[in-house]
Amino acid sequence: MSPSGKNRAAGGERSRLFVYNGGFLTQRRLRRVLSLAGYDIRLGLPGDGDLVGIWGNSPTAHRGLAVAARRSAPLLRVEDAFLRSLFPGRAGEPPLGLLLDRAGVHFDPATPSDLEQMLATHPLDDTALLNRARDAMARIRESHLSKYSATDPDLTPPEPGYVLVVDQTRGDASVTASRGTDALFREMLVFAQEEHPGARVLIKTHPETAAGFRTGHYGDTDVSTRVSLYDAPISPWTLLDGAVGVYTLSSQLGFEAILAGHKPRVFGQPFYAGWGLSLDEHPVPRRERRLTRAQLFAAAMILYPTWYDPFRDRLCELETVLDTLEAQTRAWRQDRSGWTAGGMRLWKRKPLKQMFGQYGKVSFTDSPAPSDPRPHMVWAARDSGANEFTRVEDGFLRSRGLGAELVPPLSLVTDESGIYYDPTRPSDLETLIARRATLRNDQRQRAEKLVRTLTTARISKYNLGGTLPDMPPGHRILVPGQVEDDASILTGTGEIRSNLDLLRSVRAAHPQAVIVYKPHPDVEAGLRVGDIDPGTLADVIATQADPMQLLDQVNEVWTLTSLLGFEALLRGLPVTTLGAPFYAGWGLTRDLGPVPARRQARPDLAGLVHATLIDYPRYWDPQSGRPCPVEIAALRLETGRIPHPGPANRLLAKFQGMLATHAHLWR
């Protein structure tokens, strides 16, 4: 385990940390991370064994420095970690990690920091560590994450072939520590033009400058026929892809340039300079070691920071922070312009606002004004066949209780191409499944860990529980019943599309088997159509039974399009499909139904799981009210307190079931 998961205080004991900056007292997240790391924040004067905490080289740091000098107390310098949040700290968002340094501060070369000493002396040769570093580097780049991740990877980038000059905010501590002046920034701009004659030069404005928080070093007077300012919220990884050279004083973008394969020209002395990965205008003589990109990343992003998981309220590893930040950035990128939403029943509107309204307004209308710039979403069952909107449906880890009983969901899927249950046309899920035919090691580990969590905790879509019926001995086949007017039946089946016909097919194929029929819970609750009398076609009718316990007791599953077939795959059971559910046609099931020929990719189970449960849905945490990764939704379904609608919803659900003969509602 990296130091981010350990108590940083000496000897594993808690240390008293005396502070003289109000931020240590008023910022709840800062106090919490320090407490979890083993530091008790105090006011007053330090004694023997106590520390003084200061924020980097901030304007208030002199207070703590003076007290520490007078009392001969060691310092703890605190800074934001290199993956901080969606927005800059001045926007009020708390950080996802801190840098806690007892030797110095990472951006100030005057004194070797803990990070510099680690880069200089740590072996950084552990295979597992370096593999984690490579996977995390690829993941950060693929997800377009950065210190401030509220960027748009879909923005059209400038034509490639430009030189990138990185601006920084005036008066920033890292600029001061690297002796940054207006003259040095002008010199950097001159170098960029002289060393790349004829190339365009883009000056990348700092996010805090673009947001109006602080001014930078460049302005309109620096613009020329070759030089332009660039302040669009584009992903730094997209911007780095098109650059032929990168020039920086001490910006973190220089570090990211190294990770992207550049060798930036560095005019200051940031932590990433001096290790053979940059062209240093002002070298730090004591930095003589030569590192690889993976070694630099491992130290700076895995070993050095103290990372925090806000959902579990504990310290964590980098990978958990990536889970969190990916969920947040996806929500911001999809929702920042707001939404209009149509085909949404009244009771659905609150959950939709919770899921999609964190960063922009959601307005409900079936006919948005042509001038409204917001994207439009519709409930998938109300799809008119047009492609200019996003379809919304339940996710696969939904709730504790039925959607037809108006229990709000913890997950929803969005699809711009089609929808997962309709095989008559491609969907975003199909694209994702095909893409996950190849997985990195970290992706495989995450998917396999998720499968273990779901199967061990017996987590399913609705998590209804129930009792297990007596099961006769023999080869047992589970046949899940479905809502017969469900959209997945109407669009995803051929000649066999009823529960009785499904049972007849199974009995004909396996006349001696023990057939266990599980009615659909919506049908059992009297909310949807599909109630049948199986007669002698089934040996066991598992009414009110826990489907996850049933899966533990059977040898295989036959289904039309039920999600229970996917849940059976997670548990290693053979699955035969007579329809075309999203999980059919990829080589993981025996398919007797009309599966689309376009499903040619051959992912393994981990690839299918990653696409279906990690990439495709969005998740919402009912405890924090924030977007969250799938692991948190699973945790809440297993152990958390989840709001449940009151008795009035039961009556409303009954009435809704009477009206929903053909409409597909919350499944």
UniProtKB/TrEMBL annotation:
Any GO BP: polysaccharide biosynthetic process
InterPro entries recorded: Capsule_polysaccharide_synth
Pfam families assigned to the protein according to its UniProt record, in alphabetical order: Capsule_synth
Name listed for the protein in its UniProt record: Capsular polysaccharide biosynthesis protein
Organism: Ruegeria pomeroyi
